[in-house]
Amino acid sequence: MSECVAVTSFSPAGWTDYAEEGVRSFCENWPGRVIAYYEKDKPAFTHEKLTYRNLFDQTELLSVLSWCERNPVLQGRMPNGKYNYNFNIYKFCRHVFAVSHAAVGKDGRYVFWLDADVRIKKPVPEEFLSLLFEGDAYTVRLYRGPASHTESGFQGFDTSMEINSAFMNIWRELYIEGTVIALPYGFHDCWSYDHMVKFTRVRAANLTPQLTAIGPAFKHSSLDEYMTHEKGINKYMDKLIVPKKGEADMPEVIHA
């Protein structure tokens, strides 16, 4: 069995909207096990590579979500009525609890996080994945440089390294203890991951050394041969109603 494990998570709505397609592509093309953390309702889809785990079995996560429910800002809802994803702990902390749970669970040496809106296009060789950890790196990331934050749609961790348990436990504790709100730029999984890399001084292999700002990280990395990231509006494109010719040119004017 491959030592490369893929981990992802999704909500019930996310499964219907985009995650089922992503998980199916993982099962078809990933060389090892696929661990999917679901919320509330276990999907009906099964595969010999696929293991389901209920994300909400983690009581510490439920406590964090309860804290966020009492604080709109921690859901990204600003006092001025606008949305800012940088502060949305409620949504993005689920990634941290899913991947950290798998990484300390002896599921495989190399644990990779893939967002559920990633699509694997063709079989990924195990050798390709293991070689990403060049120079004895503990973690693999799509880094955009100090002016931005890591793209968290794909991450890898070598769980055989001694630092692994401490890294994962401290990462979780940022949210459990609420100290994540002391981070200077934002509280979501990307900012907290970058903080952890710096704080623990682990070696991180960067798959996007030429990327220095927000941009399509997957396309700027060696991952592009094997997978795409259907993030944002792209993951809903097949569900959009396309207007007829001329229909979108002239919006209806509603008079007071």
Describe this structure in words.
The chain has about 260 residues and is of the alpha/beta class. About 30% of the residues lie in helices and about 20% in strands. The protein has six helices and eleven strands. Helix 2 runs antiparallel to helix 3 and helix 5 crosses helix 6.
Sum up the structure in keywords.
globular, 7-stranded mixed sheet, 256 residues, alpha/beta
Characterize the biggest β-sheet: 7 strands, mixed
Helix content: 25-40%
Global structural class? alpha/beta
In the predicted model, the low-confidence regions spanning at least 5 consecutive residues are 233-240, 246-256
Q: Going across the major beta sheet, what is the strand order?
A: 3-2-1-6-9-8-10
Give the topology string: H per helix, E per strand: EHEEHEEHEEHEEHHEE
**What form results from the Cα inertia axes?**
globular
Distance between the termini: 67 Å
Strand content: 15-25%
Number of helices: 6
Average predicted local confidence, pLDDT: 90
Query: What kind of assembly state do the chains in view correspond to?
Result: single chain
The total strand number stands at 11
Gyration radius, in Å: 19 Å
